[in-house]
Amino acid sequence: MIRLIAERFVLIAIIFLLGAEIAMAGVAQIKGVRMWASPESTRLVIDLSHSAGHRLSTLVKPDRVVIDIDNAKLVSPISGLNYNLGAISDIRSANKKQNKVRLVLDLKYKTRPKSFLLKPNAKYGYRLVIDLEKISPKSLSEAPKIIKSVNSSKKRDLIVAVDAGHGGDDPGAKGPKGTKEKHVVLSIARQLRDLVNKKPGMKAVMIRNGDYYISLRGRTRKARKLNADIFISIHADAFKNPKAHGSSVFILSSRGATSEAAKWLAKKENEADLVGGVSLDDKDDMLAKMLLDLSQTATIEASNSAASRVLSRLARLGHTHKSRVERAGFVVLKSPDIPSMLVETGFISNPKEERLLRSRSYQKKLASAILHGVDGYFKQYPIPGTIYAKDVVIKKLTSQVVISAKQHKLKKHKVVRGDTLSAISKRYRVSISAIKRANKMSSNTLYIGKILRIP
Ligand SMILES: [Zn+2]
Question: Environment class of residue 101 by beta-carbon count within 10 Å: exposed (0-12), middle (13-18) or buried (19+)?
Answer without folding.
Answer: buried
